[in-house]
Amino acid sequence: MYSVKTYNKISKVGLDVFDKEKYSISDTADTPVAALVRSAALHDERFPDSLLAIGRAGAGTNNIPTDRCSEEGIVVFNTPSANANAVKELVLLGLLISSRKVVPAIDWAKTLKGNGDSVGKMVEKGKGAFVGPEIRGKKLGVVGLGAIGVLVANAANHLGMTVYGYDPFLSLQNAWNLSHNIKRANDLKEIYESCDYISLHIPLNKDTKGTIGAEALAAMKDGVRILNFARDGLVDSEAMLAALASGKVASYVVDFPTDEMIGVENVVCIPHLGASTPESEDNCAVMAAKELVDYIEDGNITNSVNLPNVSMPRSGEVRIGVIHRNIPKVLTSVTAVLGADNVNIENMLNKSRGEYAYTLLDVGACDTEVIKEHIADVEGVIRVRII
Prior knowledge:
single chain, alpha/beta, Rossmann fold, Alpha-Beta Plaits, seven-stranded parallel sheet
């Protein structure tokens, strides 16, 4: 029986992916082989030796210590496209409320309560303070063309916007999904200088932190409207506040409220609602659960954030999964161990990602305990599984 630990409330349809005859699910499991998490912070969590994988029911993994997991041979999965439509819809809402001043207008309308028949006249007199431009015909720059960015770009194009997209790491699949009407920007400078609206859809890491800072803001058009439904750390708060005060930025809509931004004029802080739909929660939970089951039962890796994606159909009598460092001679040493023990390799797939690599081997009959012990002794090997 495999034990799975949940760190947040996980959608029932996701938990139903686990065969109840094979898996037990609990938020108090002591020796889980897998963990399911949404937003719970795991950086201070001590993981048991039994833990093989963590499934994040969502795209971002900032709440998971991925570097430590790599060192401990724990595969971290995410669900990069499962909540894409939910976020796209909120971004479209953000486009509209950044222009039409709907949020302050609604707040103002509430103050008219109690004025009886005079409300209508007060509305007509005061509504001029909330005039804002239409988005049709305006230019939108989409920074990051992953699953969400592509959907945003395509939808904005259908709404009549001229859309520029920038992503130096655009995948082939996302390129196929992107409308041919989207203009390819060669660099961020082109986005900044050309676009009336800019929407961020990139991950937060050491290279992207503070992407929108004083220098970037200075390069933008006056009155630009910025949407951030990715991560708050992508925008330098001090620089943004200065740009808002000067009028350089006409509106900033962010899905990650911070103390500095709450209550600031022309800032709309949304309380991280990007993926907060029942459909999205179901989709994320189902995808994460399927990824965990595929890895636990067959050793296949799909949508990992810390190890390469490796998947192959089973052949042979025994499957071996090896997580190891991406250094010379490890693979040669592993196959040498199998050869020395007269074990025939029927199929093998090896891929690397940065400092780490993963190898799947389907082999003939063998003494699995001896083989596991011998491979574990190879320099550079982090974890060995007999599946």
